Amino acid sequence: MLEEEILKKVISQALSKGGDFAEIFIEDKDELNIKCSEDSINGITTVRIKGAGIYVLCGEKSVYVYTNDLSSRGLTDCAERASELLNSCSERFTGNISFSMRKAENPNRFEIFPSSVGHGKKIRILRETSLAARSAGETIRQLNVDYFDTDQRVEIFNSEGLRTEDRRITSRLRLQATVEADGRSKYEWGDFTRPQGFEAFRIENDYTSFAEEFIKDMAEDLRAAPVKSCIVPVVFEAGPCGTFWHETCGHQLEASAVSRNASDFAGKVGQVVASEKVTLIDDGTIPGLYGSAAIDDEGFPTQKNVLIENGVLKGYLCDRLCGRRLGIPSTGSGRRQGYTYAPVPRMSNTYLAPGSDNDEEMISSVNEGLFVKRLGGGTGGREFSIAVSEGYWIENGKISHRLRSGFVLNGRGIDMIKRVDMVGRILKTDSGGFCGADSGLCPVTSFQPRMRISLMPVGGED
Questions:
Q1: What is the pTM for the complete model shown?
Q2: Which residues contact 183 (CB under 8 A, 6 or more apart)?
């Protein structure tokens, strides 16, 4: 831990040529990756990431400089560089810096720290996962299983006197496989993610079932029928189909998009922007979810943010800098992958609130349409595109047959969320994954109850 007097001098140096706010973000992170290829362990990599970023603001301007030299001289040189880059600033910080610790409790509980468990036990998890995948009864042409764990400790100090800290631990398995069925083959990857230490693997059936079902699903997909391009009602299953909200409007509700006028939601707070069935929330305080933390990466406590309520836009996800640009407070949403990135507004756990509609009626009332059980990757913005990983055709109010993956759902987000005509009562979560943006890869979760769009373009085969 660095001495507070040194950090005060570093902040003063960063503000020596102008600026009204400065922050030091210190990261100390351990990462482990063990690779299992074709049932053989072929690599163990341990990485220690340690460094600091210095963030200086002058009104609506910003400078970010980082270093992996945490000596007094290294930090001072970094701060001097930041001050030189902002030397045209007329604003001057005149206060005295006196740090006061502000503690916040991480909603995720960690029982077994990864560093306390030997490689042998982690290799056993890999072997059990590989065996479970091969026991699925399908033809596997290639199989890789990777084990990952991370232990990130962060400390934040700023010119307002804030001192705070957090510890984030995650465990993850990644399967990569090539499966063959009915003369066809496909490659796919999938993650088993937990915001936990090694206790994530306490129940063997959790990760082995994941592996077995992953392979079976790949084979079933190869045997499925293609879908033609069409415009039909689309029913999205509860749980992981929350990716729909992440891509259709989540990124547009980040204040960075709003402040540069790259969002259809800019200037529409208080206006109807979606169906009255839609209440959309982002909440970084939910225990057990991948996007949860005690604080954001600017030191603000995470919080529950209602973005859309009964179709009416209530606000945006905001960090300190965008808050200045838009004249609104931070929502505890300034996030970053690590010390080499400046913070920007990012989603955490984004979900559609439950409604009052009947799940079965969403399907039974559709003559012809699409039932989406799982979504894959996508791109967001004003126009979105999302791949369907597992989908089924609805015919005469019943699920008829599975559709081969590879088709996409697309459209303009603000138009599509106005077409939500049914939202179910049962909210289901998802295990989570990563979102990549300007501040790197951040863990997120997106989920929902079952939901229906009255009409939606489906991009399939012509």
A1: 0.96
A2: none
Residues 85-89: contacts with CB under 8 Å, at least 24 apart: 85/56, 86/17, 86/18, 86/19, 86/56, 86/58, 86/61, 87/17, 87/18, 88/18, 89/17, 89/18, 89/19, 89/20, 89/58, 89/59, 89/61
Last residue of a domain, one of 206, 222, 238: 222
As for how many domains the chain has, the answer is 2
- For 212-262, what is each residue's pLDDT tens digit? 999 999 999 999 999 999 999 999 999 999 999 999 999 999 999 999 999
The reply to whether 117 and 216 lie within a common domain is: yes
Residues 138 and 280 placed together within one structural domain of the fold: no
CATH for 142: 3.30.2290.10
